[in-house]
Amino acid sequence: MKLTLFIGLSVLVLGSSAYGSSKTGGFSSQKNETIVKDTLVDPIDNNTYLGYKIVNFGMGLLGTPYVAAGCSKNGFDCSGFVYFVFNNFKIKVPRSSSQFKNFGKEIPISDVKKGDILLFLSPTRNVIGHMGIVTNPKGMESDFIHSTSGREMKVVITSLKKPGYTRRFVKAIRVL
C-alpha cells in the first residue's frame, strides 16, 4: 500500500507540473526527472514513461525528409532517425541498421510497447536494412514511426500490417 501511495504521489506531482507554467513545456524539465528518480516508482513504469517521451519526440520530426546517411533535423535515413531520437535521451544505440542484428533484447511482437524498435529485412538483400520505433503497440498490427526511402521519402507513421512490412519483419527489440 505504501508503494502504491508513492507511485500515486509521483504521478500526481508529475501531472501537476507537466501542465503547469514550465518554460520547457512540461515533461522534459529536469525537475520532473528528479521527482521520478527520488520516489519509489517501479522501473517498468519509468521505461513506459520514457517510451512515451521517445515517441512524442519522434512525432515532432514527422515530415522530415529522407536523406541517405542523414542523421539530423535536415534529413534522416531509417537508422539515422532512430539514432537521433534515442540519442536525444542519451540512450546509446548503433548508427547503422545492420548493427542492430544482435543489439537490445528481442521481445515477442505481442509484447511491444511504445519506444520499442522494429527491425526489417532490406527490400533487396537478406540483411537487416530498415527499422522504426513503435508508436501504437498492437502486436502484428502495431504502428511505427520511421524514415522511409519509399514513395513518401520522409519520416512517416506506418502500420506493421502493411504487406511490404509484414513480409520483411524480422523482430522487435527493447533497448529501454
Description:
The protein is α+β, with helices and mostly antiparallel strands and 176 residues long. It folds into two domains: 1-41, no CATH class; 54-174, endopeptidase domain like (from Nostoc punctiforme) (endopeptidase fold (from Nostoc punctiforme), Alpha-Beta Complex), CATH 3.90.1720.10. It is built from five helices and eight strands. It has helices at 2-18, 30-38, 43-59, 78-88, 163-168; strands spanning 71-72, 75-76, 105-107, 117-121, 128-136, 143-147, 155-159, 169-174. It has a six-stranded antiparallel beta sheet with strand order 3-8-4-5-6-7. A two-stranded antiparallel sheet has the order 1-2. A hairpin with a 7-residue loop joins strand 6 and strand 7. The model is unreliable at 1-42 (pLDDT under 50).
Strand content: 15-25%
Strand order of the largest sheet: 3-8-4-5-6-7
Q: Give me the CATH fold name of the largest domain.
A: endopeptidase fold (from Nostoc punctiforme)
What structural category characterises the helix and strand content?
A: alpha+beta
Number of domains: 2
Number of helical stretches of at least 4 residues: 5
Instruction: Tell me the overall shape.
Output: globular
| Ends apart, CA distance between termini | 27 Å
Low-confidence stretches: 1-42
Name given to the CATH homologous superfamily of the largest domain: endopeptidase domain like (from Nostoc punctiforme)
Radius of gyration, in Å, reads: 17 Å
- The CATH architecture term of the largest domain is Alpha-Beta Complex
Largest sheet: 6 strands, antiparallel
Integer average pLDDT: 82
Order of helices and strands: HHHEEHEEEEEHE
Helix content: 25-40%
Strand elements, count: 8
| Name of the level-1 CATH class of the largest domain | Alpha Beta
